[in-house]
Amino acid sequence: MEVSGRNITVIGAERSGVAVARLLKKAKANVFVSDVGKSQHALKNIEELKKEGIECEFGGHSEHVYASSLMVISPGVPTNAPVVVEAQKRGIKVVSEIEAASWFCKGPIIAITGSNGKTTTTTLLGRILSDAKKKHVVAGNIGTAFSSVVLDVDEETVVVLEVSSFQLDFIDTFRPTIAAILNITQNHMDRYDNSMEKYASSKARIFKNQTADDMLIANLDDVWTREKIKSAPSNLFYFSTTQNVSQGAFVEQGMLQSRIRQTNYSIVRTDEISIKGEHNLQNAMAATLAAQLVGIGPAFIKATLKNFKGVEHRQEFVREVNGIKYINNSKATTVEAVEVSLKSYSEPIVLIMGGKDKGNDYSTIYELVKEKVKAIVATGYSADTIVKNFADKVKVEKVETIGDAIPNIASMKKALETATRLAEKGDVVLLSPACTSFDWFVDYEERGKIFKQLVNEIQEQ
User: What pLDDT does residue 311 have?
Assistant: First the structure.
């Protein structure tokens, strides 16, 4: 799409907003950045953009945001945000940052979405490509904005993108050569009117612009995924841990196998895959198929699957101090991710839970919490909801939010102090929030990093 000379508004001055503003300025667009003004990070970014000659505002959205023909929004901006709704009323085209970045992309795109496992699968695929010396970039929801790297991409560079439903809500021409849907389970109900149908349809937009020349990797074991891919025009590749598939990845006699265009491949024994659990086996299958579809041989894939150590903020052991283990699972922003996490430990758990609730249904983990958790530290905007759901099942202590700073280090420190007080030698203190971080932090990464920093400050006794 031609953007030179166009007036374009960017909503949000965090990572992706800043990156797309710079990208559009390089493309000679007239860029205006507007941020509602809650984060010191955003304020600092605004100041930097102004130095670069990009017009900005901070602290609210003025009428100026509508003096444009195109609005690019960051993933954290809700679909029903007043500024978005008003722009659409006025006939202003609204797109996501990945949509805008894709206009400049020369290389093939592998886009990975799902309610759980996106970051692990994206990171694993990036590692496979790196180990195989395949030219690539990893970007998207994983932490590096697509807009910040797209101009470095040539025809030979594979772009691996982690893509959220929020980013897919506002695509127009975005068309990945390879798309992957890992699973679709209840998530972000607050953004989708408590409708699984609306949420699942958002995920399915990943193949909206694909044709029979493109490829779609899909979880055959997942009910919502199976339903949604019925309308896919793409060349389908399934993965399943429970059954053989005509084309895709499956398990046979303890071996991860793939079948691609009527050729069978033995990849690796499942017990040799370094990341454990059925969910990680599914992640490995999806990454394997994507790697093979861009020409990576089984030997490279096997070597990486045997040595990959996992992802920061995902079941990450931080430290054992005074006989208590501290685990950072900040990436667990869904109830399903918390369920997986709780099942990973045999020790008694003190669970730090909460943040910005997404319309979660906590009833699915009631029994597991009673079995595994000795106490819950309820935090953030959702603290009262967590107390309401679990106070009659386990001991729950609520931590009141201290001030409104972002990042809210003081509140996290209080939550950690509370969890440490409730824990005993032999216990696990587990940060596994089931919620997004946007009440106290910019993103789950910042939440996890600050948690780790505070854990490392605990004194031995």
Answer: 76
Q: DSSP string of 145-176? A: -HHHHGGG--TTPEEEEE--HHHHHT-SS---
What radius of gyration, in Å, describes the C-alpha atoms of the chain? Answer: 22
Answer whether 0.85 is exceeded by the pTM: no
Alpha-carbon span 301 to 129, nearest angstrom = 9
Amino acid identity for residue 374 in this structure: K
> 39 falls in which pLDDT band (50, 70, 90)?
confident
Instruction: Indicate if 157 and 284 belong to the same structural domain.
Output: yes
Residues, the chain: 461
CB-CB contact of 181 with 216 (8 Å): yes
Rounded distance between C-alpha atoms, residue 116 and residue 173, angstroms = 25
Chain-centroid distance of CA 452 in Å reads: 20
SS3 377: strand
Is 451 a domain residue? Answer: yes
Judgement on whether residues 118 and 163 belong to the same structural domain of the protein: yes
| 294 and 320 assigned to the same domain | no
- Of 275, 307, 339, the position where a domain reaches its end is 307
DSSP string, 170-236: T-SS---SEEEE----S--GGGTTT-HHHHHHHHHGGGTT--TTSEEEEETT-HHHHHHGGG--SEE
For the chain, the farthest-separated pair of C-alpha atoms sits apart, in whole angstroms, at: 64
User: In DSSP terms, which residues pair with 158 in a beta bridge?
Assistant: 136
**Using an 8 Å Cβ cutoff, are 138 and 126 in contact?**
yes
In whole angstroms, what is the distance from residue 79 CA to residue 342 CA?
32
pLDDT for res 268? 97
Nearest CA among 184, 213, 207 for reference residue 293? 213
CB-CB neighbours of 67 under 10 Å: 12
Query: Do 405 and 382 share a structural domain?
Result: yes
Domain extent at residue 293: 105-307
* 121 vs 207: CA distance, rounded Å: 18
